[in-house]
Amino acid sequence: MNGILVIDKPAGLSSHDVVNRVRRILDQRSVGHLGTLDPLATGILPLVVGNLTRLAQFYTSSEKSYEGSIRFGFSTDTYDADGDPTSIPRAIDLSLDHLTRIATEFQGAITQLPPPFSAKKIKGVPAYKLARKKQDVPLSPVQVEVKEFQILTCEGDTATFRARVSSGTYVRSIAHEIGRILGCGAHLAALRRTMVAEFTLADAHTLASLELARRGDRLAEDRPTNDRLEDLFIHPRKLLPHFPSVAVNEEQASRIRTGQTVNLPVFSNARFVKAFQGQRDLIAIATRVAGTLFHPGIVFPAPTSPVPAKL
N or C: which end of the chain has fewer CB atoms below 10 A? Predict the structure, then answer.
């Protein structure tokens, strides 16, 4: 099992919890994720499995999209609904027009202070570990890009929104800052990730569906009953769509697998190319040397039997 699997993460589990569950389900140790989701959040959590864990380096700056809700009236120490209140709850009369105007201040390139309860490292220690111990969390502002932040509805003390942001952006911080601007406090009440890079909710599967497919049983009622475990993985040809694909013959494949440069007929000026043997066997990500001459920078070994993970 080598590939990318998109899980629809349920609320209450950390990204690491999901990774561990998938390791047990697949009986495979080599599983990692392409971007953390907080326990409160749901939605797209792409997982790299087996030999294709090496693809993670190409997804470190992936764009992400979210939808969610912000509750106004008090702030929390985690900037979301899982935290403890840090201000006295108060009644608030919200205006959709007013919130819409404030939302425009959080679009484009902005400087953002990460939440104290975050995975940002401070002298090698995750900030949330210091925050849990009530220690100072001296985080530095970071530059991020908010490509879209739109308030959709406003009712009572809650507003819903849609956002599209660069990697490293904390939507929790945006919610907290809007509350600060309004002077009433606010926190993220709910969050669902709807896109990461080329992956959307249409690609996602529940952990229950994965377990059923692994046992060879029928999947959830809303999915075809003839799906196999292999069918739950993203087709390799759909990965990294901005890299052109090229099919290689036996001789070229042999050269690639031994780390030798090879001529590939690519009608593109792209720096990287995906080399396939057959329809599904991604054997390398090759880097252009000159013209049509490519060096296999990342070579994926032939599939082997997975090592069962310890329960």
Answer: C
